[in-house]
Design goal:
seven-stranded mixed beta sheet, binds S-adenosylmethionine, 304 residues, alpha/beta, 10 helices
Amino acid sequence: MAAQPLDADTIRDANTRYHDEAAAHYDAKWGIDYGGIGQTQVLGKVAKALGGQVGSFGRSLEIGAGTGYFSLNLLQAGIVEQAVATDISPGMLDALQVNARRLGLEVETVACDAEALPFADGSFDLVFGHAVLHHLPDLDQAFREFRRVLRPGGTVVFAGEPSRVGDRLASVPKRTAFALAPVWRRLLGAAAAADPGQHGGADAQLGEIVDVHAFVPDELARHARGAGLQDVKVRGEELLANWFGWANRTLESTAEPDDVPMAWRQYAYHGYLLFQAVDQRFLESRLPAAIFYNLMVSGRSPSS
Ligand SMILES: C[S@@+](CC[C@H](N)C(=O)[O-])C[C@H]1O[C@@H](n2cnc3c(N)ncnc32)[C@H](O)[C@@H]1O
């Protein structure tokens, strides 16, 4: 998170440039999948956020859609009929269209700021996003926009938002992995990275600016209720999976990417999925939302 408060335009500009540059490597970096695994993940998150069944929706609007992780998987799973995907980064939306074409899907993409949506009032049945709220300078304005474009009785779902406590807890595996990195590289025969800390080639300084919030559950609920949404619920997900994921990503970021063996990447990916299942099955229903790494919020626009 940035040390100094920055003005909203600087944050938006940094987000546009950072994500434009990250777009080409984004899916590979985050292991984003558009097959069965991706659909199961996305449906699982939406179901969890809504507290059970997903249902189906006519016209959906995604905020900060990136390369299409949520919209493309929801379309393929038949959860949404017609998808509009927005993002402040045209580069991300270009990558999304490449993915959509490869999958034979039709999606309308619109480059815009979440706080000023170029859509008519009441024009969507579902407004959703993944890992985007923490980039938005004015969350009250953004939630007012989400509510405005939602039809009466429509649904809002946002998942993958960093939790303040979860973020602090995740610094432990990151620091531990960083300390162990030289030994890990020696074991794998990997050379030290020429540009450690770079994120998929995107500029590291911009990376310091783009994340402007980490949340406690009550904050997210307050933004949603402040916009007039009803039945607001906040839940937490991923604890062990995130510690495992951050430890591995920290190790990998210290090595030359081509020196990290495929077997290691497979282990990291499948291990992450395994820990996700453990979190889901045993921890998420028992522990307070605040300690998980990711928070999700859902709500409904009043019926009339
Ligand atoms: C962490 S990425 C998540 C992308 C995608 N939702 C996913 O889960 O893979 C955050 C996305 O939010 C977008 N974003 C950042 N600030 C934004 C803003 N003010 N309005 C709309 N999108 C924004 C970024 O360009 C980026 O694509």
